[in-house]
TrEMBL record, chain B:
Protein's UniProt keywords contain Iron: no
Protein family membership: Belongs to the ABC-2 integral membrane protein family.
Keyword vocabulary terms for this entry: Cell membrane, Membrane, Transmembrane, Transmembrane helix, Transport
Compartments where found: Cell membrane; Membrane
Positions of transmembrane segments: 21-40, 191-214, 235-261, 273-292, 304-322, 358-380
Membrane topology: Multi-pass membrane protein
Gene3D superfamilies reported for this sequence: abc type-2 transporter like domain (3.40.1710.10)
Keyword Transmembrane among record annotations: yes
InterPro entries given in the database record: ABC-2_transporter, ABC2_TM, ABC2_TM_bact-type, ABC_2_transport
ABC transmembrane type-2 domain sequence ranges: 157-383
Coiled coil regions, renumbered to chain: none
Name this protein carries in UniProt: Transport permease protein
Source organism (scientific name): Paenibacillus mendelii
Length: 386, 383
């Protein structure tokens, strides 16, 4: 029985730059074929390109007044890799990206893109990167084609517009003004603009934030196709599913620092639990169980009245931790989460325990552990805080 | 170079597609021109509303009343009674009330009879005048309004003088031949149209640039461009070119409207005029860039620009001559770029002035342009 406390987890997770020895498919319970294909594609490309560093970030540091936005971040990105920056809002993802793009001057540290230092040869850096900013604003009254031609004129070399329109599924919008585009189309146009100079590295800052599920899928497919062609992509997101599907390696960020950096599968493996069991107790208010019986209509019984069932949350968690296979128990809001390496044994024992103790539970479900679990495990907070 | 061309063309397309902006920036000055032009562009002397109360109702009194109507200065309105007319005068609906009291015709004919022989005899004239009592009429006017009071007095005196002189068969000893000293006939519209063009250049560029750049910065449009290899100089040069084209076209449109509707002319060279359009555009664009940099948000850029341009619009010799202002105001106004731009445009259009006589305006505008451009490029930020 291994119960990782948070500090301990942090120490375990910090050794980074582990080589991606294992690119096999995780046998997920509910993996769609889409995701499987995505992971297949990722692993193929990764084998082709060896350790050829396109981006080298060393100790980047940025302060705004007293607030430290980025606190000494270091990593490297290999050619052809999709590198994800995953973290909640305000983790420093955008600031980190913009320092690499040369849009912000770091207060310390350095960033090199394709061997060019952003401090000394910024124009060289700009020539080899394509940038999609978090909120790309374009001239609303220009058409898709006009915008592309305009941005093409900013570079000494640019790619033909026709194939770009095809790739970004914008062919029938080429004569349409930007203001008439949907959110997904605008985002695809932003990526088309970022690709106009045939960049070595493509930066995508939260490309799917605010898009509907269909538009997100379309965009994911575009990213994976770009990856197949060998584009190096640095992508920031606060969606863990997006990071898992698209990224070869993920850099988990929180409060300006890297808290973990590895492949998505390795990150989940660091939890040492493949599955999670979730359930809630009825009449649970703010993590404190007030009623124990199944009788909900008349629940003004003081907690002490129910003999066995009126466990305080702490006591209940203690009990749960002793269920076979459980590696960790967490109470998030009103939901109990049991992480287990042996789903079947844990589930059987859990149901038995609850019956013995006469505790009613609701909303029971099991799922595979996700990057979100990794993040919560390491920081105690969710990726998207309400 | 291709970035500069593409950006210029793109900016011109943005202008052409932003109908609201086009309508506002062009129709606003044209509207001002038409409104002020029709309101104040009265050729000849001003007219004065007057009412004649004929209490005598004789042939002589009616003759006198009709003479008042023929002055060309008085705009005769009918009033029923003296009281009603005086009431109207107090409410500024009338500028003058003339009362022809009962007995006017009698006095006049008596006076005529007495003076009649004098016209024949050369010696008895003065004695005869003294013998009769002159007929009297009353004029009531608003003495607080100096202009209308003066006009009223002059008109009434002219009419009565005419009647008197006719009555005594007066032959003037000295006559005055009137000649205008102005070689060209200039009216208010000739003053107004160049001022309107200057105002348009100021507001389009100062307000337009400040608002647009601040909004682009806020929305991250500039930031996106900053992440490309585009050089700031190409961007600014394209902005300048596109705005020069827009302002040149708009200035010509306003001048043509002035010419067709009000018959204003460009007496000097179009080249000189265009030079001042360009230098004015550059000066006010630079000030617009400074405002855009100073403003923290696009919401504050527009009020700041308006705060600068509004006083300049009314004090800078656009609608009213600077010479009519108090001395200390004139000193301040003469430092403003708008004053020199409107003066220069006016001189070129109305008197056909060339650079030789406009070097003060050229220097001041050029100075503003250089200083403002220096500050603008120093303070310009992409984000």
């Amino acid at each position: 029985m291994l119960l990782l406390d948070r500090k301990h987890a942090l120490i375990i997770a910090i050794p980074q730059y582990r080589l991606n020895q294992d690119n096999g498919i995780v046998a997920g319970m509910e993996r769609s074929t889409f995701i499987q294909n995505a992971i297949n594609r990722k692993s193929e490309v990764l084998r082709v390109h060896a350790d050829d560093r396109v981006i080298e970030v060393d100790g980047l540091f940025k302060k705004y007044g007293n607030f430290t936005a980025v606190n000494g971040v270091s990593f490297g990105v290999s050619r052809g890799e999709v590198f994800g920056l995953l973290g909640p809002n305000g983790a420093g993802k955008t600031t980190t990206m913009e320092m690499i793009e040369g849009l912000r001057k770091p207060d310390g540290g350095s960033a090199k893109v394709a061997g060019h230092d952003t401090r000394t040869s910024l124009r060289k850096v700009k020539e080899v990167i394509g940038v999609q900013l978090q909120s790309t604003s374009l001239f609303e009254l220009l058409t898709v084609e006009e915008i592309l031609r305009m941005y093409a004129s900013f570079y000494p070399r640019s790619v033909p517009i026709e194939p770009l329109l095809d790739d970004m599924i914008l062919q029938d919008k080429r004569k349409g003004q930007v203001k008439h585009l949907s959110g997904g189309q605008k985002q695809r146009l932003a990526i088309a603009i970022a690709l106009i100079n045939d960049p070595i590295v493509l930066f995508l800052d939260e490309p799917t934030t605010g898009l509907d599920p269909q538009a997100r899928r379309t965009l994911w497919d575009i990213v994976l196709r770009l990856k197949e062609r060998g584009k190096t992509i640095v992508l920031s997101t606060h969606y863990m599913d997006e990071a898992h599907i698209l990224c070869d390696r993920i850099c988990l960020m929180d409060q300006g620092s890297i808290i973990a950096l590895d492949t998505p599968d390795e990150l989940i493996r660091s939890l040492q639990s493949e599955n999670a069991i979730e359930f809630r107790l009825p009449d649970q208010v703010d993590g404190y169980q007030t009623a124990s019986s199944a009788i909900q209509s008349d629940s003004h019984i003081p907690p002490a009245a129910g003999a066995d069932g009126s466990e305080a949350p702490g006591m209940l968690m203690g009990l749960l931790q002793h269920i076979p296979g459980v590696q960790q128990v967490e109470l998030r809001k009103d939901t109990y989460v049991l992480y287990t390496s042996d789903l079947q044994a844990t589930l059987t024992n859990f149901v038995q325990l609850m019956s013995e103790r006469n505790i009613t539970f609701t909303d029971l479900r099991t799922r595979t552990a996700t990057l979100e679990d990794v993040f919560i495990h390491m920081t105690g907070r969710g990726l998207r805080e309400e | 170079m291709k970035a500069y061309l593409q950006l210029t063309v793109s900016q011109l397309k943005l202008f052409a597609r932003n109908r609201q902006m086009l309508v506002f920036t062009l129709f606003f000055p044209v509207f001002f021109m038409l409104m002020f032009g029709f309101l104040f562009n009265n050729d000849g002397p001003m007219s004065l509303d007057a009412s004649i109360i004929d209490q005598d109702r004789t042939e002589a009194s009616q003759e006198l009343a009709s003479r008042f109507g023929q002055t060309g200065v008085l705009n005769i309105k009918t009033s029923d009674t003296e009281a009603a007319a005086l009431d109207a005068l107090k409410h500024n609906d009338l500028g003058l009330v003339v009362v022809i009291p009962e007995g006017y015709g009698d006095s006049l004919s008596k006076f005529a009879q007495v003076s009649e022989p004098s016209s024949g005899g050369t010696n008895g004239g003065s004695a005869a005048v003294n013998a009769g009592t002159p007929a009297q009429i009353r004029m009531i006017y608003d003495s607080s309004n100096l202009t209308t009071a003066g006009m009223a007095k002059a008109a009434v005196n002219a009419v009565t003088d005419g009647v008197s002189k006719e009555l005594v068969h007066f032959t003037p000893a000295v006559t005055v031949a009137e000649e205008s000293v102005q070689s060209q006939q200039l009216s208010y519209i000739d003053f107004l149209v160049p001022g309107i063009v200057a105002m348009m250049i100021m507001s389009n560029n100062l307000n337009g640039v400040a608002g647009q750049i601040a909004s682009w910065r806020e929305r991250g449009v500039l930031r996106r461009m900053q992440s490309t290899m585009l050089r700031p100089s190409s961007f600014i040069a394209a902005q300048i070119t596109a705005r020069l084209a827009l302002n040149g076209v708009q200035a010509v449109i306003v001048l043509l409207i002035g010419q067709f509707i009000f018959g204003t002319q460009v007496r000097g060279s179009w080249g000189t005029l265009l030079f001042f359009v360009i230098i004015g555009t550059l000066a006010f664009m630079s000030i617009g860039f400074i405002v855009a940099s100073l403003a923290r948000t696009p919401e504050s850029a527009n009020p700041i620009a308006a705060f600068l341009s509004f006083p300049m619009m009314f004090l800078g010799g656009v609608f009213f001559p600077i010479k009519n202002m108090p001395e200390f105001v004139q000193k301040i106004v003469n430092l403003l770029p708008i004053a020199h731009l409107s003066t220069a445009m006016r001189e070129v259009m109305n008197t056909g002035a060339g650079f030789a006589s406009l070097w003060t305006q050229t220097l001041v505008l050029g100075g503003w342009m250089i200083v403002a451009f220096a500050i603008a490029s120093y303070t310009f930020k992409w984000e």
